[in-house]
Amino acid sequence: MASTASTPAPTPASPPPTRTPFSLVSGLLLCAAIAIVATWVGVRFPLLGAPVAGLLLGLVVGNVLTLPAHTEAGIQFSIKKLLKWAIIGLGLRLPLQQLWSVGRESLSITLITLSLAFVAAFLANRWLKLSRALSLLIGAGTAICGGSAIAAIAPIIEPKKQELALALTTIFLFNLVAVFLFPFIGHTLGLSDAAFGLWAGTAINDTSSVVAAAYSYSQEAGDIATIVKLTRASLILPVCLIISILYAREQSDRSNVSMIDIFPWFILGFVLAAVVHTLGILPVRVEYALLQVADFMLVMALVAVGLGSRLKQLMSAGVRPLMHGTIVWAVVAISALMIMKLQNFW
Q: Which of 325, 329, 89 is CA-nearest to residue 211?
């Protein structure tokens, strides 16, 4: 998983932001300032929560104001790096036994929904007739981990820049919808905290959107959703390997993807943090302080996601990619609920 964040679709012709100490600091300070406000809003309105408030405030500021160009590097750093560190830090909240139990119980649901997502993408594309690359990118983004899966698979299938941008935009639009729609559905269905965490971790695309939706539901739902999501994200390695083999059969020069580069190494940090918590290595006060820092970095990362999102660009993805994404996403979300019901998770 190259990045866990829900990264907006970039304009293909735009060069990457220049990273200087000043640009990093200015962008980070902007994200931190908005995150402070979001944290206050989350305290005043606990049903909304700081992560969702951060995403909303970032969207408003990023789309109403014209941000200075020198803040872009810090915003992108927050999206790509801070979320990983925040997820690692959240591992300090979880006993290793819970990590193993939830990961083991959710694996069967994850494998089934992942398989159904790719089947749904294939069948939907027979009707919608998108390019194979675009269909595969949307399917992988929905099945595994959103923009991160798309970024990992792109070097294997070599899509056109427009296809890559369309896939990222489509997936990110569904991420925004999920943050607000899933908690509403969860409360309507009467899902327990554990059941909602399992569902959110299984059916929402990007890690940032998973934690935003789940922690707005409850602390327990957020913890479980994080474990389930990381279990799901770890499957990016075998999926990329399979796709690489299939494409290599067609063209031998497409088998040069590095499995080491695409592996989501931060998951190991999350597990290590859970080991540290389970063994009681750190003093309680230190562990508590680190958790507070991780929570705030999570809000900062979601602020950055909002700041980097352009609503006009999201709405210009086109009808067919959105229909394709809707079909695959619905299959994953509904099948996950059905399996959970059959297995008496709710």
A: 89
Q: Are 19 and 222 in contact (CB under 8 A)?
A: no
Give this prediction's pTM. Answer: 0.69
pLDDT tens digits for range 290-323: 989 988 998 898 788 788 877 776 666 568 888 9
What 3-state DSSP class applies to 40? helix
Q: From CA 259, how far away is CA 162, in angstroms rounded?
A: 25
Torsion of Cα atoms, 31 then 36 then 42 then 44, to 10°: -150
Which residue is it, tokens 């866990």?
4
- For tokens 């969702």, name the residue: 52
| 253 burial type by CB count under 10 A (0-12 exposed, 13-18 middle, 19+ buried) | exposed
Token pair 């012709």 is found at: 13
> Nearest-CA neighbor of 319 among 128, 132, 179?
128
In this predicted model, what pLDDT tens digit does every residue of 61-70 receive, in sequence order?
Answer: 988 888 888 8
Interior angle at CA 39, CA 49 and CA 187, nearest 5: 5
**Phi, psi (degrees; rounded to nearest 5) at 176:** -65, -45
Which pLDDT score, from 0 to 100, does residue 70 have? 87
Paired tokens of 37: 């406000």
Residue 81 phi/psi, 5-degree rounding, is -110, -45
Domain-wise residue ranges, the chain: 94-296+311-342
Q: What is the DSSP string of 138-178?
A: HHHIIIIIHHHHHHHHHHHH---HHHHHHHHHHHHHHHHHH
- Dmax (CA) for the chain in angstroms is 58
C-beta atoms surrounding 288 within 10 Å: 13
d(Cα 274, Cα 102) in Å, to the nearest integer? 13
Phi and psi of 94, rounded to 5°?
-115, 130
Q: How far lies 256's CA from each of 154, 178, 270, in Å? A: 12, 35, 29
User: Is the Cα dihedral 38, 205, 245, 251 positive or negative?
Assistant: negative
Tokens 């059905």 appear where? 338
Handedness of CA 165, 167, 172, 173 (dihedral sign): positive
